[in-house]
Amino acid sequence: MKKIRLAAIFLALALLAGMLPPALAAPKIEVGAAAALLVEQETGMVLFSQNASARREPASLTKLMTALLIAEDCEEGRLDPDDTIVISESVFNDLEGRSSLKFSAGEEITVMDALACALVASVNESCNMLAEASSGGDRAAFVARMNDKAKELGCAGTHFANTHGLPNEEHYSTAEDICRIFVAAAQYPLVADTAKLTTYTLPATNMADARTISTTNRLLLKDSAYYYPYALYGKTGTTNAAGNCLATCAEKDNIRLVAVVLGAPSVQNEDQSTTIMSFVDSRHLYEWGYENFGHRTVLDTTDLICEIPVTLGDGANSVVLRPEKSVTVYMDLTVPAEEIARETELYSEELQAPVEAGEVYGRVTLSYGGQRLGSTNLVSNTSVKLLHIEYLRSEIRAFFGKTWVRLMIAAVLFFIILYILYLIYVGRRKRAARRKKLEERRREEAARAQEKPDWYGERESARRGERDRR
Predict the structure, then answer these.
(1) Contacts of 310 (CB under 8 A, 6+ apart)
(2) Burial zone of 41 (CB within 10 Å; 0-12 exposed, 13-18 middle, 19+ buried)
(3) Which of 18, 201, 378, 410 is most buried by a 10 A CB count?
(4) Buried residues in 241-277 as b, exposed as e (16+ CB within 10 A)
(5) Are 293 and 333 in contact (CB under 8 A)?
(6) Residue pair 173/263 in contact by the 8 Å Cβ criterion
(7) β-bridge mates for residue 173, sequence order
(8) Distances in Å between the alpha carbon of 126 and those of 116, 163, 244, 459?
C-alpha cells in the first residue's frame, strides 16, 4: 500500500509540476479573490488560473504541509496516530497568547486529536504540538523540513516560517504551490479522511473535559448558505493580511476538481451579515468547471481516418484505416468537433496483400489549441486476400529485378558470347590448317609431276581435274 500511495503522489505531482495555462477555451468567469486556481486532479489540467503564481500569505493553508509531514511520519512508522503528546509551554511561544481551545501545558492528547484540531477547527497550537512530536521538540527543524518538502514538490514560490500560518514576512506561498501541497497531502487517507469531517470530539484529557470541534469549511455544512454537495474535503485559512483562503476538492461524475482561492474578501451586506467570498468563489469555480468541462470521446474506433493503396489484392486495391482504440480526454465540452486537429502518420505509402484486419499501419494524434489531447494506432478496417497469379508475376519481376540476378545473367551471356567467339576462332584455325595442308600436298604433287614423263603428267592432271570437279 505504501508503494502504491507514493506512486500516486508522484504521479499527481508530476502532472501538477508542469502546470499549463488554460488552453481549452470555455465561457469566461470572474472571481473576486486575489489569486485562484481550478485543476482537474487526474490529469493536472488547469481549467482556470488567476494570478496563480503570485506570492500570497497562505494563512492556515500552511497546516496542509504540517499535516502532510505528520502523515508521512505515521506512514513510515516514526509516529502513530494513537501516540500521546504532552503539551509543552513552548507550543504557545509564537501564538501571541492565542489558544483556540484553551489547551494547557502538561495536557495530554493524541497525535490524531491534534491533527483533527489542525485540519477541522484550524487550531494553531495543535500544529506546534505535532511539529514538536515529530522533531523531538525542535520546531525549527520541523519548519526546515517543511521547506525541504516544498522544494521536493516543485513549490518554487513558497517559504514557511512557522507551522500554522500566522503572519510573518518570510512566510508565503502561491495558489499553484498550495495546490501541489494539497494534492500530495490528500493522497494520505489520514489527511483526506480528517479534512472531510464536519465535527470531531476530543475525549477528556488529564486536564480538561471532552470537547467537540466543528469544521471551518462551510462548503461541507448542509445548513450553510455556502454548502456545495459535491465538496469532499478541504482547508480554510484566514488572517487580516491574507484575506480569506480556501483549498478544497470536489467530485462529480467521477471527476475530481481541486480549487484554491487566496485573498478573497469578506463582503458586508445591507442586513449587516457578512459574505465570505472564498466559499462563493470556490463554489462558482466548481459549478463552472463541471458545466463546461468533462470526459469527451474525441476519436472512436468506428471513425474512418484514411485510405491506403494495396497491391496484389484479390478484389480490392485499397483498405481504410481506423483507430485501434478510442481516445477519451478531459476537455472543454463546448469545443466543436471540427476544431480538434488530427495528424496522421502512415508507416508505408502502399501496402501489399495479404492485409489482415486489425494490423497496425500508422498512428493518429489529436490536438486542440496547440495542446496534445492523445493518440492511438491506425489499423486496417478490413482484410484483403492475396491474388496468387499477380503475386507470382510480381515475384518473377522482383526476382529478375534484383541486382545480383541481373549480374549473373549478364555474366552467363558474357561467357556464352566468349564461347561462341572461341568456337568461331577454333573453326577458322581448323579451316586455315586444312587449306595449308591442301596447298602443301599440291605443291608436292606438282614437284613429283615434273620428275615423270609428259604422258604421266597429263594423265595426273586429268585425274586432279576430275577429282576437283567431284
Answers:
(1) 316, 317, 318, 319, 350, 351, 352, 353, 355, 384
(2) buried
(3) 378
(4) ebbbbbbbbbebeebbbbbbbbbbeeeeeeeeeeebb
(5) yes
(6) no
(7) 56
(8) 9, 9, 21, 155
For 201, counting Cβ atoms within 10 Å of its Cβ (0-12 exposed, 13-18 middle, 19+ buried), the class is exposed
> Which residue, chain included where needed, has cell 472543454?
332
CB 64 within 8 A of CB 185: yes
Residue 7: its pLDDT value, please?
A: 42
Q: What is the pLDDT of residue 470?
A: 53
Segments of the chain scoring below 50 in pLDDT: 1, 3-4, 7-8, 10-12, 14-15, 17-24
384 neighbors 355 (Cβ within 8 angstroms): yes
C-alpha 397/C-alpha 407 separation (Å) is 15
264-293 pLDDT per residue, tens = 999 989 888 899 999 999 999 999 999 999
Interacting residues of 352 by C-beta distance below 8 A, sequence separation 6+: 310, 311, 312
Query: Residue 427, exposed/middle/buried by CB under 10 A (0-12, 13-18, 19+)?
Result: exposed
Task: Give the chain's radius of gyration (CA, Å).
Answer: 47
- Locus of grid cell 476519436: 299
